[in-house]
Design a protein that fits this description.
The structure holds two protein chains of two kinds. Chain A is an all-alpha fold. Chain A is built from five helices and no strands. Chain A has one domain. The radius of gyration of chain B is 63 Å and the shape is rod-shaped. The chains are: A mainly alpha, B mainly alpha. Chains A and B meet through helix 1 and helix 2 of A and strand 7, helix 17 and helix 19 of B.
């Protein structure tokens, strides 16, 4: 069993958001957040693999600080950093936070898609 | 909506707010209960819904203290059942005002009447004037005067009326009397005065002589001595003569008697002047009649019948003329007075009804005023007594809610009345008296509003055995959230308490403080479809979610299930450790702010474990060893595996990992 690719993770996330199911009642939002973050992290790893090997060993915070230097789009780099922070918050247990809502998840997924397009285009 | 048909969000807003409201959570009809109630208010809840309103939304909470003070008063006073008292007092006040108004109206109409009365030279007017200008109105006197039932009210009027009815002796009767006197006098004269006495004497003499002859028989005359004068022939002649004498004496006597009667009748006409004539001059009438009448009646002393007849004849004409003139003058004067009086009397009679009502009303005003005063005092006392337990409860609630607030609630009082009614909140900030609202933060205001209204919602009199509080946690600091949890715990002992919130701090506090509660998590999907599920402790929740993912592997795809399940296991460990840290440190008396800051600054499982195990975030290196000692090898492995597989697929048995993670999480949670 291989680890999820960026695209697989995104598709799975979208499916969780869009398809209500008895199986995922109550957990779909948190699970989708996990998958979106997973997609973002693998996309980032792919980027470093192609452009700056070894960078993936740094902390994610450090990687995200380097990102504007490798992306033409500064706004996108900012959005990616923000999405990583948001999904991480949703993935780590936080006693005060409700699960993310549908709109948030969609925005995050869209950002990751833009990121993929931006790094491969 | 269901209970009141209203939504506070619309109140005072444009139509769009109301029009736009609908249930988005279902496509179909909302199911209705099997039994529909009939009538406007079948449960009798209309009033309690206002007085004990069992809902408190965020909107309302904020508005409670920001609205006009009288509104807050009304909302609190509603539960005290004081409306009836206020209504009664209001009714008394209205009655009193109506009566005072009556008096005022009557008084307002008075000056015109008084002026009219003053302008009259009528003693009735004077009587009325006196009756109306005294300390109190003498309405009985006015009525008697106006209705004329009291003659003494004006002697002048009585005199005038008597004068109008005055008549001089009738001319025809006088003429008859004069003739009768004259004829009788003539008749007496013709029979002659002197013969009458002689005839009577002779007749008496003859009678005695005849009696003597009857006893002693024929003989000499005892008077003149003539011999044999008394004999049968004498007797016959004397008897005849005596009969003659008797006839003539009788006729004379009758004439005399007739004359006496005629004179008496004539003198009867000479009555003395009526008393009222003496008052003629003071009434402003011509005085001639008095003198004429005096002259007339002066004839009563005349002895001679002819003189008397002449007097009657001479005096009658002038007397009649004088009396006629006087009557005419009196009639004119009476009419003059009546013409001026009548309109004033009419006005007075009209006013009298008003005055009577006003006086009757005025008599009741002191009683009404006293009743009002009494009610006011009673209302204050009742209000105090009924509000005391609520105020006390509110202070208790505030005591629980305020936690670290510097604001101390020293007292709550309903005060003032009518337009100045308000709720006095006595507040001390750091021991200094202050006005409540100015010094309080939004969160404190909300807490205070809750403090005031939770007691209201939980009164025994309320038919609602539930209370719904919407988003009470917003803008509260963590300490108040703990206080709120305690307050709701108290309320939940006597009521079903429903709290809706977006802020998970209340749930966290409820769990940490081990307050029994059912927590439901509502998630909203596309199309506003909502999922509701029972929310567990975050540790239980994460573990349960992990198991569920494993069961749904086929649907989700094994890599997805695996990736997410490991993350959920990690969340379970984090939740367990955070809850242990919170419980331990808050229990030690550390502030919420300090504990939360510590947790915010603690990143990663190792740092958290270091805090839980050693109370020190810096001993990450000793974590595995201590975990091994405290738990067992498998637990330590679970910790490491979860940490390492956060970002890559877990190759081992997921069910095994999840169950080991669960054991470890429970163990860590116990360390709090």
């Amino acid at each position: 069993m291989n680890a999820l690719t960026t695209e697989e993770a995104l598709v799975a996330a979208r499916q969780l958001v869009d398809t209500p199911s008895q199986d995922t009642t109550g957990l779909w939002a948190r699970a989708a957040a996990v998958l979106v973050r997973q997609a973002l992290e693998t996309a980032l790893r792919d980027l470093w693999h192609r452009k700056a090997r070894g960078t993936h060993k740094a902390t994610f915070t450090a990687q995200l600080l380097c990102l504007p230097a490798f992306l033409d789009d500064e706004d996108l780099a900012g959005a990616v950093a923000w999405t990583w922070a948001a999904t991480s918050a949703a993935c780590h247990h936080n006693g005060y936070a409700l699960p993310p809502v549908r709109g948030e998840l969609e925005t995050w997924a869209a950002t990751v898609e833009r990121f993929i397009a931006g790094t491969r285009g | 909506m269901l209970l009141t048909g209203h939504n506070r969000r619309w109140e005072g807003r444009t139509a769009e707010w109301k029009k736009g409201w609908r249930n988005l959570h279902t496509d179909g009809e909302v199911a209705r209960g099997r039994q529909e109630m009939q009538g406007d208010d079948p449960l009798g809840w209309a009033d309690p819904l206002v007085a004990y309103r069992p809902f408190l939304s965020y909107n309302e909470l904020g508005a409670l203290l920001e609205n006009k003070p009288s509104l807050l008063y009304d909302q609190l006073a509603g539960i005290l059942g004081l409306e009836e008292l206020s209504e009664a007092r209001e009714r008394l006040r209205q009655q009193r005002l109506a009566r005072t108004r009556l008096e005022k109206d009557a008084g307002k109409a008075l000056p015109g009447l008084l002026d009219a009365l003053e302008a009259l030279d009528d003693s009735r007017a004077a009587t009325c004037l006196a009756a109306l200008t005294g300390k109190t109105w003498d309405l009985d006197a006015i009525e008697a005067t106006v209705l004329g039932t009291s003659e003494t009210a004006d002697p002048a009027l009585g005199e005038l009326r008597r004068l109008v009815n005055l008549r001089a002796p009738d001319a025809a009767r006088v003429t008859d009397a004069v003739r009768a006197v004259r004829e009788a006098a003539d008749a007496v004269k013709s029979l002659g005065d002197s013969r009458e006495a002689e005839s009577a004497s002779v007749a008496g003499l003859l009678e005695h002589a005849l009696t003597h002859h009857g006893r002693f028989g024929d003989g000499d005359c005892p008077v003149c001595g003539a011999e044999g004068a008394l004999d049968p022939a004498w007797r016959a002649a004397s008897e005849a003569r005596l009969a003659d004498l008797r006839t003539s004496t009788q006729a004379f006597g009758e004439a005399r008697k007739k004359l006496d009667a005629a004179v008496r009748a004539a003198k009867g006409l000479l009555r003395p002047a009526p008393e009222v004539l003496a008052r003629v001059e003071t009434l402003g009438l011509p005085a001639g009649a008095g003198a004429a009448w005096a002259a007339w009646s002066g004839g009563v002393g005349l002895r001679d019948p002819h003189d008397l007849a002449a007097h009657l004849e001479a005096a009658q004409g002038p007397l009649e003329a004088a009396v006629t003139a006087l009557v005419e003058a009196a009639r004119t004067e009476l009419a003059r007075r009546e013409d001026r009086w009548r309109p004033v009397a009419t006005d007075l009679a009209e006013w009298l009804a008003l005055g009577r009502k006003a006086m009757a009303g005025k008599a009741q005003v002191p009683d009404l005023k006293a009743a009002e005063e009494w009610m006011k005092g009673a209302e204050g006392a009742l209000r105090e007594r009924r509000f005391a337990p609520i105020a006390e409860r509110a202070q208790e609630v505030w005591g629980l809610l305020r936690q670290e607030s510097h604001v101390e609630l020293a007292g709550i009082e309903l005060s003032g009345s009518s337009t100045r009614r308000r709720v006095d909140l006595e507040v001390r900030v750091d021991g200094t008296d202050s006005v409540a609202l100015g010094v309080m933060s939004q969160g404190e205001l909300h807490a205070l509003a809750l403090g005031l209204f939770i007691p209201r919602m939980t009164l025994d009199e309320s038919p609602f055995h539930f209370l719904v509080v919407d988003d009470p946690v917003q803008s509260m600091d963590p300490h108040k959230v703990d206080g709120l949890a305690r307050v709701l715990e108290w309320a939940a002992k006597i009521r079903q308490v429903l709290v809706l919130t977006h802020d998970a701090r209340l749930a966290e506090a409820v769990r940490r403080m081990e307050i029994p509660a059912t927590i439901l998590e509502v998630t909203r999907r596309a199309g506003s479809a909502v999922e509701v599920r029972r929310s567990l402790d975050p540790v239980d929740q994460s573990i349960r979610d992990a198991w569920q993912l494993l069961r749904s592997q086929d649907a989700l795809g094994p890599p997805v299930a695996s990736q997410v399940a490991v993350t959920f296991c990690r969340q379970a460990l984090e939740a367990a450790m955070e809850s242990a840290i919170r419980r331990r440190r808050l229990g030690r008396g550390e502030t919420h702010a300090d504990v939360e800051e510590l947790l915010r600054d603690t990143h990663g499982l190792h740092a958290l474990a270091s805090l839980v195990l050693f109370d020190d975030p810096g001993k990450g290196g000793d974590v595995y060893k201590t975990l091994n000692n405290r738990f067992d090898r498998t637990a330590t492995d679970a910790f490491r595996e979860i940490k390492e597989h956060a970002h890559k697929l877990y190759p081992g048995s997921l069910p095994d990992l999840v169950s080991r993670a669960e054991r470890l999480a429970r163990g860590l949670q116990e360390l709090g």
